[in-house]
Amino acid sequence: MRTLEEVQATLQIAKLKEEDLQKTIHCLSFGENVSSADYCLMELDDTLCKHIESGESLVIRGDAEERAVLCSGDKTYDLKIADTSNMLLFVPGCRTPDQLTNSQESSHVVHTQIWGFCNSYWELRKHRPKLKKLKKLLMENPYEGPALGGQEENTENRYTMQDLLERIQASEEELKTHLETIHASQIDGYWRMLDFDYEMKLLGHVTQLVDSESWSFNKVPLQTSLEELAPLEPKEMIEHCLNCYGKRFTENDNIFYALHEDKVCRGIALLLLQNAIKFNLKEFQEVWQQSVPDGMSARLDQLKSVALVDRNSRPETISLLRVEDLSEDTLERFNHLFTLREKWTEDDITPYIQDLCGEKQTTGALLTKYARSSMQNGIKVFNSRRPVAT
Amino acid sequence: MLVCICSSRSSVDGSSPPEWLLVELQGEMVSRHNSGLAGNVMGDLMYTKEGVPVLIVGHHILYGKQVKLEKPFAVLTKHSSLLQDSLGSHDNDDVTQVPMETNQQGPTSTSYSVSALIKRKLIFKTRPKPIITNVPKKV
């Protein structure tokens, strides 16, 4: 270990005057474990730094075929290794001038170990969570209602929250939010997606009850609904349906639901659209309005991102196109959309690219990057940048 | 597959990981006799009265400056252990270790802990100036 005298000799050779320097001199040496490579450096943003300081953990998620992502409790980040031509040394015991007390009268040596070093680090970039896989997994065994007498329930391909957290590249909060969005329900400890026909059956029970009881669909009583419908379906499923299609509130200690007009109408539209490739728009709108509960109005704007209207065909048509069925990859998504239709107006395409926007990114920016615009009949339309087969 | 990055393995009271200093140098560092770096002296670091960091490495003297990092770093230490038990309850406060399927015998569990946070660095970007020695001073 170097002594003060040796250091002072070096200073003299280097022509540094002791009186120009602060009193503490760090003698740096490499620790024993520097070459062990069992450590690495990761770049953080302010949010993650605070997370770690408050004791929260982070998780890296990804299968062998997937690119790894880092998740905090509520956000997802892309991981990438960045190289630098510089050497980065980490020194635990090293003080900076503002931390030195300078109370000592004379120079002294502090032996300080370099704990590790590297010339690359992990870079993080905030990323949309990869949630498409969630629906895919849950559709392996959708819940069709309680097993009928004699029939065995299919217990394969069921996933608990823990299973999902291991497989889905998203933070826990993003995952929970998406489970709500796709109307998944926890049944027997497993997260299940409802078979669509079953979900619509439940909704049908509820809307028919509202109709026969002459309730306002803004004030559907929970207790009575459960009692009346108990012979038909499990109470948990009725309540789940109300949670998906309505908003819960309490009045005088009683629980009510205000059915959400847009959600109910959209559900019924999906039921009608799923059985054919295309519908005559006018006919569809008539049937649809007749199918929704009395007092609700079915409007085309309720179907943004789930159905596509073709105003250029004669007669005008409507078909099912759900954004959640499209690719999560931006380029693939645009290629697919342009394959379906050569030219899109901004109004038509926006619902199908909204979810691709990164933080602070607009759909306008995406269109500038991935599409080419032109004017058609006085309206701005977008088409593909490269040739696509239609 | 899940790899957990735990805030501080040894910290029981949940206190924040320690803050270390980063020293950034241009170029590579090799040991004089090719004996590897571990255990060897690297150099002397000192500060002028104005707070300018000065580093003497071998026959070179470098002047640097102290910089606050725009994006802080975390120093992650890897821990691999043979999995003994099955998973504990999934509780955000606990250290959750999850097995990774590996080709080796028996499942191993990999996790990282945050050994330190780095928010500032000393960067030495100027060209090192050689120290001309005439006669080595005897102590």
Automatic annotation (TrEMBL), chain A:
GO cellular component terms, semicolon-separated: chromatin; chromosome, centromeric region; Ctf18 RFC-like complex
Entry coiled-coil feature ranges: none
Signal peptide, first to last residue: none
Organism annotation: Perca fluviatilis
Family: Belongs to the DCC1 family.
InterPro entries reported for this sequence: Dcc1 (IPR019128)
Protein name: Sister chromatid cohesion protein DCC1
Pfam families recorded: Dcc1
GO biological process, one term: DNA replication
Keywords: DNA replication
